[in-house]
Amino acid sequence: MVKKISKRRPIPHFLRHKKHSKKPGQAPGTLHFTGEKRIENVQLNLCDYDIDQLGEYDITEIEESKPYLDSPSKTWINVLGLHDVEKLKHIWNYFELHPLIQEDIINTNQRAKIEEYPNNMFFVLRMMVVNEATGQLDVEQVSIVLSKNSILSFQESDYPIFEPVLHRLRNGAPRLRNHGPDYLAYALIDTIVDYYFKVLEHFGDEIEALEDKILEGFDESIPEQVHTLRRKLIYFRKSVWPLRDSLNSLIRDESHLIQDDNKIYYRDVYDHLVQINDGIENYRDMVIGMLDMHMSQVSNRMNEVMKVLTIIATIFIPLTFIAGVYGMNFEYMPELSIPWAYPAIWTLMILTTAGMVFFFRKKDWL
Amino acid sequence: MVKKISKRRPIPHFLRHKKHSKKPGQAPGTLHFTGEKRIENVQLNLCDYDIDQLGEYDITEIEESKPYLDSPSKTWINVLGLHDVEKLKHIWNYFELHPLIQEDIINTNQRAKIEEYPNNMFFVLRMMVVNEATGQLDVEQVSIVLSKNSILSFQESDYPIFEPVLHRLRNGAPRLRNHGPDYLAYALIDTIVDYYFKVLEHFGDEIEALEDKILEGFDESIPEQVHTLRRKLIYFRKSVWPLRDSLNSLIRDESHLIQDDNKIYYRDVYDHLVQINDGIENYRDMVIGMLDMHMSQVSNRMNEVMKVLTIIATIFIPLTFIAGVYGMNFEYMPELSIPWAYPAIWTLMILTTAGMVFFFRKKDWL
Amino acid sequence: MVKKISKRRPIPHFLRHKKHSKKPGQAPGTLHFTGEKRIENVQLNLCDYDIDQLGEYDITEIEESKPYLDSPSKTWINVLGLHDVEKLKHIWNYFELHPLIQEDIINTNQRAKIEEYPNNMFFVLRMMVVNEATGQLDVEQVSIVLSKNSILSFQESDYPIFEPVLHRLRNGAPRLRNHGPDYLAYALIDTIVDYYFKVLEHFGDEIEALEDKILEGFDESIPEQVHTLRRKLIYFRKSVWPLRDSLNSLIRDESHLIQDDNKIYYRDVYDHLVQINDGIENYRDMVIGMLDMHMSQVSNRMNEVMKVLTIIATIFIPLTFIAGVYGMNFEYMPELSIPWAYPAIWTLMILTTAGMVFFFRKKDWL
Amino acid sequence: MVKKISKRRPIPHFLRHKKHSKKPGQAPGTLHFTGEKRIENVQLNLCDYDIDQLGEYDITEIEESKPYLDSPSKTWINVLGLHDVEKLKHIWNYFELHPLIQEDIINTNQRAKIEEYPNNMFFVLRMMVVNEATGQLDVEQVSIVLSKNSILSFQESDYPIFEPVLHRLRNGAPRLRNHGPDYLAYALIDTIVDYYFKVLEHFGDEIEALEDKILEGFDESIPEQVHTLRRKLIYFRKSVWPLRDSLNSLIRDESHLIQDDNKIYYRDVYDHLVQINDGIENYRDMVIGMLDMHMSQVSNRMNEVMKVLTIIATIFIPLTFIAGVYGMNFEYMPELSIPWAYPAIWTLMILTTAGMVFFFRKKDWL
Amino acid sequence: MVKKISKRRPIPHFLRHKKHSKKPGQAPGTLHFTGEKRIENVQLNLCDYDIDQLGEYDITEIEESKPYLDSPSKTWINVLGLHDVEKLKHIWNYFELHPLIQEDIINTNQRAKIEEYPNNMFFVLRMMVVNEATGQLDVEQVSIVLSKNSILSFQESDYPIFEPVLHRLRNGAPRLRNHGPDYLAYALIDTIVDYYFKVLEHFGDEIEALEDKILEGFDESIPEQVHTLRRKLIYFRKSVWPLRDSLNSLIRDESHLIQDDNKIYYRDVYDHLVQINDGIENYRDMVIGMLDMHMSQVSNRMNEVMKVLTIIATIFIPLTFIAGVYGMNFEYMPELSIPWAYPAIWTLMILTTAGMVFFFRKKDWL
């Protein structure tokens, strides 16, 4: 008779809170992968380039990278898959990464951050992509370790995030090929931030669809949908905000690994993040306003229901009373024997009803 | 019987979220116009002036501007229309603009900002004008590139935003003619900010109209209207806030393109923006208060409906019961044969009603 | 039958938003008075004083002030009335005021501020006075231009704001007479801030009156009154806050027009403003709490109405049903002919009612 | 029939807003006591101490303090009662206090603050004590003037606030006796702040009591009680916050009257204030949550009332209809003469009721 | 008939506010234990280690630690139990701890903080552990006093918080053994912060459980549960926030007790705290959203109840009226004698009902 609450939509996977792997009191740098295995084997894609040449190689052992690293050309090694801790450890030790870097790469609940170490600049970001098949967000952690002459990047899966950058490298983009690895690092981060714009658009679409739903009719699952949307926006903001702050510090501070004339590009990424953040705040405001609108819609409906009940009851209860009076069985009820009494009663009833209708019209209820 | 929810008002065009054109991973400075074509052909209006003379020219090729740029007089080139990327590229390259400036001019979702480049000062602002025909806001992005001796400005359409400045130039305004292009830049920005005051007034009118509507009667579309108004204010604030912050930095920092004695004028624009921002915050507070007021109005109405129902039901239900009792067909009901029973019952009913009315009066319901 | 929404109280004049006079693109310093004419002719009251003497003069032309300005004694010229722009312009030019100062004096929507110019310190404040006749706030803009040896002050009307200061001057207050015009500027500002305390008290009274009203009974105009009160507080805060911030900067920064040992007095005014601001925040919190309290009162009333309805309906609907059963006309209803059936039915009805009453008592509804 | 709103609890005296005594435009330092007379005569308690001796004296004229002030021992004069302005003026002038200090001591609406003057450090605090007799808060303003070798303290009443400090002095506390008057000032402030903890506990008790009341049953005065509690917390915070900020500045800045190795103690008081402030914020959050909880309780009750009404009405209205049908007086109603019709109707009614009960059980209403 | 409010869950012990032990005006450093006795006797575990050896000793008198403290190896003394003030005083005096440190160790309501004293660095933290038996949080205060060559730590109970660190020491962790006591202090703090992650997960589980409960059905204890959860989160945040701020200062400032190359580890703890704080904020947002969702669920239920009532009443009240009309006893009612009148009335009734059902379907109520 009354609609059921619509079936609960599954909360997106990435919103479910994750277990923090490290046991209390473990040494820093204790390595334990906190994500899920998303790829069969750890893959290493090496890309060696300078202004004149570009070489792409799939290597299996990190030692194979030695000749490229030793050469003056710039080297970018992209590592796909984080589940094989032993193999990763081998890679990290080969590059002498600080234990805290190692711990952060593998702990996939990391807050986005940029940290400077004596020989490295370390970036952790969260990639977010709208999966076109499912319409859901795919989320994974990406780490970038910038060294003097090389870049190490780590992804959880083999999603081709950095394909556009590779594409540009192959097409001989002079700025990319000519600048040092700090410019490549910028290009990688910029790619991820560009995906954020797509995610923002995705949220914008969701919000407009939900807004239309609220205005069109009544759906009991709206509060839940608003709640989920709000959680997704909070999650998104949590990914964007710390990165923005870290970039801001990066731009202001001296850094021996990032050249001053490349900072203008980092500032541009920073601007994009500010813009995304504005968008998120905007959407959050709208989502809160949507709940208000929904609640007010619910109130309006309740009001409407009450008015129908009141109109019906108010018209018929007095009439029923009149009918009840002349249904009484007293022996001495003089009206009962008057011939015109029955039509008179009908007239009285009709006039009462007309009066009620007039009253409701004045009250603006009809 | 019950009013329908009023037809949905179209959400203003500029509130619909726009697509971010850049594909993830594209090189910075990849040029792709994100707005709509609003003018047939790109127009170039050149204005060359100093204290003694003023020349206005419509040129078709940017190269025609060479003699004016080379002369010591100040040159202002206003470019109308952003859809012809090829033509714009030609202009930008002629002026050797940084690729990031180029990208920002053409990406019309830009956050307002002021950025310093080695040879230029770059301003992006959002012009907002109340269209007198439609009563809606017309929004477009305006970019200003300030160089040592010239100004380049870019608009999306041929709306005569800068007409008042031109008018003053033609009338020989000595301060404007005498100062360098930094003062002209100020004049252009000040013009746009003056339009913001008109927009603020427009919102003030809308708010007062809506407030009157809420107090006068009941309209189910009010939550939606409040929601839209709130979104417009958020949008407006988003246009004003970043400009204010950028101007604040501009005033505090050294800048080789803006003379110190002209900074007092920029400070004045900054003050105006602070004032506008105060106004927006004020209006936002009022809009939130309006929703509270509306909800309380809805509660009051519901209360009123409930009271009518309760009064009618409470008076007639007991009376109907009494009538029902003497409608029973028991053989032995001594009251039925008492001659004065019928008038006695009427008296009882009238007394009951009077008691109820007295009770409601005491409760302050009548 | 049901109370009407009480007649709308007029929103105070000063809350109605004002038109911004300047047309977009006009030169800064374009002079256009934005208020209303509040006085017939512009009046100039000149007061020349030092520790030994005090002279008060009503002058008609600003040139008459020359001998006083040239003398080493301090000169204070109070200008009443801002509508005669030509006359004012003449005065300003006589004192060589910066065009932006001129624009700000005459634009009566100004945000309170303190600005330093090469030869002047410029103060804009909003005077707020509780009009004892109307119980409303009178608001007007006051500007003070502090120079090396003189003070120019501008009011919109001839309200005797500065009478108390004059009074002290006449009574030979040694500190006031002895110190420079910076101390006089302090005294003028302090006078205006003292009026703010009166305004704060006025709001405190209004809040307590409204609070009593909410607790005593039910009045449908309460949300509107709360809304208006809130707007007034916002407006008041908007007048106080920027002044406080400007004073804070004034105290911290070097200033050649304000002597260091007088800064302690400006700090005292600053403290007063902080205190007023605390009071406003306090009242804002209380006003928000009042609306919650009112809404909860409304809920309580609705609850009460519902309970009355429910009690009446729940008691009589079953009884009416019983009466209805024995009003049926079936030929074979054995109960009808039992002599004790009628009293038995009455007993049943009374017991049912008693059961209901017991149930309601248990539920705490009676 | 329906409960009355419980009698209004008097709002605590100290929450009623006080009149600001100073008339607009009065000279700073114009002395006018703003509190109430709480003690018959102004009392002066003098305490002269160093590591070896302690003398306590009740003096009547401030001149009697001369020998103690001239001696190298430290002197503390506690002045009780602020209503006799003439007498106080005499004391202040004897100590050559700045006019602004004088004004602040006597104006008992002062915001807590610490100000440095050339020869003095001036502290204004608000003492708050839970009166064990009334369960209410007693509030009074305490001022402390720290000089090179002496302390002046001012209270409104003769409440023995500083008794514990005196007690320690008498017992020969070596740290207190040995350190300068800056340590004594610390001890006095610390005593007042310790009372704040008691006040905080008092609020904690009130909150828990109110929380229990909300959960246990329904009381219409709850919104009002929550509102009053909230106001008290706001008032308390207003007393604590500015003191905390002033102490923070005191710790950071150089001060010639407070020795550096005593600053650690002031830092400790600061820590206590931060802790108290945390507690207040915590309680404010809880109080807001309480109102939500109460509103939700009210909604639940309303829901319950509605359900009872609906169940009764839904069961009996159809039954009454059936009874009504067979109470009609048509001549040709074949059912009326069927012998088993009456029991059949009863069966139908019972089945209808059972169906309704089943429906309500399914809906989880019974 | 209507569900009872579910039995109140006990509010967790640690949320009940604690009494502040110190009586107003007591000397700083007056020692009074504010917690409960959680262990029979105070225990002292001494651990002496360097890169080569590790010795663990249970000592009974603090003097027994002398040989270890005098040796160049690092010494860690963990004190369990805070109730025996005399014994503790003896220990503190042996180490010459500042009286304010002593007071803070024993006052177990301490805000987390890090303070530098001439010879010590003093850390106070709150340990929070999810008790696996009860599912509740166990809370206790931990203090760490870092000296040049030793560490003193104080716990309230004998909970083996630091067991993991001991375990690593025993297993010869080279970094831990090799670095100074500042690294050990880091390891202890890091252990406690790691427990915070577990607590955060625990809250995440509680939130998701409660969210499921809200969506699945209706439970009147939800507002209370939400309220308790909110309080727990506030409490947790209050434990985390000040520690984060203190660590931030520690990282930025110079400190003679913490070596610069160990600061990177403290920065890592700081990062963890920021992450935990983000999580808490996130959860707080979600908890607020949950209450909105619950309220909207309650509204929906009320709406549903109202609709059932309205449908039943609206269908049967008019029908009952019709039946009532023909139950009247007028002598001249021509319809009564028409043979087809009775079936006609039934037809009318059925049509009326059908019309109502159609109307409700159109309104989307059925």
In brief:
The structure is a homopentamer of 366-residue chains. Chain A has helices spanning 66-70, 85-95, 99-106, 163-170, 174-178, 181-216, 222-252, 263-325, 341-362, and strands at 43-49, 54-59, 74-80, 113-116, 121-130, 137-146, 150-155.
Structural summary, described in words:
The first copy, chain A, has 366 residues and is an alpha+beta fold. The first copy, chain A, folds into 2 domains: 34-296, CorA soluble domain-like (Beta Polymerase, domain 2); 305-362, Magnesium transport protein CorA, transmembrane region (Methane Monooxygenase Hydroxylase, Chain G, domain 1). The first copy, chain A, contains 9 helices and 7 strands, in the order ββαβααββββαααααα. A 7-stranded mixed beta sheet of chain A has the order 2-1-3-7-6-5-4, sandwiched between helices. Chain A is rod-shaped. Mean pLDDT of chain A is 85; it is low at 1-9. Chains A and B meet through helix 4, helix 6 and helix 8 of A and helix 7, helix 8 and helix 9 of B.
Annotate the secondary structure layout.
The structure is a homopentamer of 366-residue chains.
Chain A: E1 43-49, E2 54-59, H1 66-70, E3 74-80, H2 85-95, H3 99-106, E4 113-116, E5 121-130, E6 137-146, E7 150-155, H4 163-170, H5 174-178, H6 181-216, H7 222-252, H8 263-325, H9 341-362
Parallel strand pairs in A: 3-7
Antiparallel strand pairs in A: 1-2, 1-3, 4-5, 5-6, 6-7
Q: Please give the domain count of chain A.
A: 2
Number of helices of chain A: 9
CATH homologous superfamily title of the largest domain in chain A: CorA soluble domain-like
Order of helices and strands of chain A: EEHEHHEEEEHHHHHH
Q: How many distinct beta strands of chain A?
A: 7
Q: Give the overall shape of chain A.
A: rod-shaped
Strand content of chain A: 5-15%
Oligomeric assembly: homopentamer
Mean pLDDT of chain A: 85
The CATH class of the largest domain in chain A turns out to be: Alpha Beta
**Overall helicity of chain A:** 40-55%
Which CATH architecture of the largest domain in chain A is right? 2-Layer Sandwich
Looking at the structure, the CATH topology of the largest domain in chain A is Beta Polymerase, domain 2
Q: How would you write the strand order of the largest sheet of chain A?
A: 2-1-3-7-6-5-4
Largest interface: A-B, 71 and 67 residues
Rg of chain A over CA atoms, rounded to whole Å, is 34 Å
Gap from first CA to last CA of chain A = 26 Å
Structural class of chain A, please?
alpha+beta
- Uncertain stretches of 5 or more adjacent residues of chain A: 1-9
The profile of the biggest β sheet of chain A is: 7 strands, mixed
